[in-house]
# Entry
Amino acid sequence: MRFPFWQTQHDYVLEPLRLTDAAALAQLHREDFGRPWTEDEFTALLSDATVIGFGAREAGHGSEPPIGFVLARLAAGEAEILLIAVARALRRRGVGWLLMDGVLRHLHAERAEALFLEVDESNAPAMALYRRLGFIKVGNRPNYYHDERGMPSSALVMRRDLR
# Structure
């Protein structure tokens, strides 16, 4: 499944993630997460039949590593975003929207009923994106995240109904 996406300066395509992307996903994850997932962890996720993964690549660069990715798990009609990440240098260019739109389309096609995610309450850009996509807050996990200095922040649990 390929979804074209045109941006003012770049063309991006969305493609299913491959096992060979695991190292690149680990590298992207390392940019922003205090406890980055390993290549082996990504390989295990990509091998799991319940996990859906899409990567955004610059158009015409299909052999290059993804510039962003989303992983979701679908089980019993409900889905959860496990992780979404975009290369720092390419943020605020619509790549996150592209990734979320792709996973939402896929979940609609699979007839999923709802999509959940957790987001750090201090991540204003991500929260704005999720709200624009129709997610609503349904819960709170106090002290769920810790920044590089060990300072805690809460995770907001958000949901979007898909039917």
About this structure: Residues 3-115 form a domain with the Aminopeptidase fold (CATH 3.40.630.30). The longest helix spans residues 95-109. Helices lie at 22-30, 39-47, 95-109, 124-132. Residues 1-9 have pLDDT under 50 and may be disordered.
